[in-house]
């Protein structure tokens, strides 16, 4: 058997000093966890397409990626799964308040850094804060470094 990590994408979106995060239920009847709008790469789509799709599905916002913030390799001991996360920054537009979000998404909202720090025990993974820190440090890589072949 060939080992393969789970490829995921995440949107790091900042407006007026606040970051767009989602509250998601990972297991039934547990406290919702905080994450960037994020999810798995699907067959046939590019990483840029995936992050735009996931952001819309989880928040109702149209996301336009402008930069790659970083690539993160993380192993979750909770589910014994390795993730390879591509985090993008960009901007959101065209919010649809009536958009029917994925069932696991409890809420999407804007959080100040102080709130994000206070809620660190509810972060879905350590990547939530790391991606924000890297974005805040100015990490920006052109999308042209990513190649997608059909």
Short description:
Helix content is 19%, strand content 40%.
Q: Could you walk me through the main structural features you see in this protein, from its secondary elements to its overall organization?
A:
This protein has 3 helices and 9 strands. By secondary structure, the chain is α+β, with helices and mostly antiparallel strands. It has a 5-stranded mixed sheet. A hairpin with a 2-residue loop joins strand 2 and strand 3 (18-24). The protein has one domain: Nucleoside Triphosphate Pyrophosphohydrolase, CATH 3.90.79.10. This is Phosphatase NudJ. Its cofactor is Mg(2+). Its EC number is 3.6.1.-.
- The top-level CATH class is Alpha Beta
- CATH homologous superfamily title: Nucleoside Triphosphate Pyrophosphohydrolase
As a percent range, the share of helical residues equals: 10-25%
Round the Cα radius of gyration to an integer and report it.
Answer: 15 Å
List the helices and strands and how they pair.
Elements (H helix, E strand, L loop, with lengths): L5 E7 L1 E2 L2 E7 L8 E3 L2 E3 L6 H13 L2 E15 L4 E13 L11 E8 H6 L8 H10 L4 E2 L8
Label this structure with key terms.
4-stranded antiparallel sheet, single chain, 5-stranded mixed sheet, Nucleoside Triphosphate Pyrophosphohydrolase, alpha+beta, 150 residues, globular, 19% helix, 40% strand
């Amino acid at each position: 058997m060939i080992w393969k990590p789970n490829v995921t994408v995440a949107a790091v979106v900042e407006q007026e000093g606040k970051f767009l995060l989602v509250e998601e239920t990972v297991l039934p009847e547990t406290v919702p966890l905080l994450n960037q709008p994020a999810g798995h790469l699907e067959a046939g789509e590019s990483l840029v397409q995936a992050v735009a799709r996931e952001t819309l599905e989880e928040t109702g916002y149209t996301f336009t990626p402008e930069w790659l913030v970083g690539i993160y390799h993380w192993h979750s001991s909770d589910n014994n799964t390795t993730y390879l996360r591509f985090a993008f920054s960009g901007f959101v537009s065209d919010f649809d308040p009536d958009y029917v979000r994925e069932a696991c998404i409890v809420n999407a909202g804007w959080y100040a850094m102080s709130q994000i720090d206070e809620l660190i025990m509810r972060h879905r993974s350590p990547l939530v804060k790391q991606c924000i820190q890297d974005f805040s440090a100015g990490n920006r890589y052109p999308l042209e470094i990513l190649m997608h072949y059909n």
